[in-house]
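Example record

One chain of 148 residues, shown exactly as stored in the release files.
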Amino acid sequence: MDSNSRDSEYNLAIKNLFHGKIMERVSAARQIGHLKDGRATNLLVKALKSEEEPIVINRIIEAMGEIKDAKATMAIIEILKRELEKSEIEQDKSLLFLIVESLMKIGDKRALEQLGILSSSCESELKKLTEEAIACIDPNWKKNLANK
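Predicted structure tokens for this chain:
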């Protein structure tokens, strides 16, 4: 794909992310993630803050993980904090899995504190994935914790 068609695809995806119907926004977020273009991070953060549809939120978080830009970390953590304020029964497990996977791909150590809280989950698969994410982000986390 040449740079002009890539830019056109990117611009259309950004337009659809903010102005499309639900499934257009879902598709746009997925497409932006596949493009792995770091310049989209700030726009994805803006879209995430204003988006209300859970399926679009999921795809935006997924796209942020694909792009792997640490600028997305705090926006994702805000969503994680809101989920963790809910009782464990009310939490959206699929969203939590996406958050952990995206934070693991991004690899920003600022995510460790919230992931540490999530690692005490009763959901065994989520707990396992969270522990993998923590180890991936900071392989020396146990030693670092012992030194505090």
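Notes: The mean pLDDT is 91.
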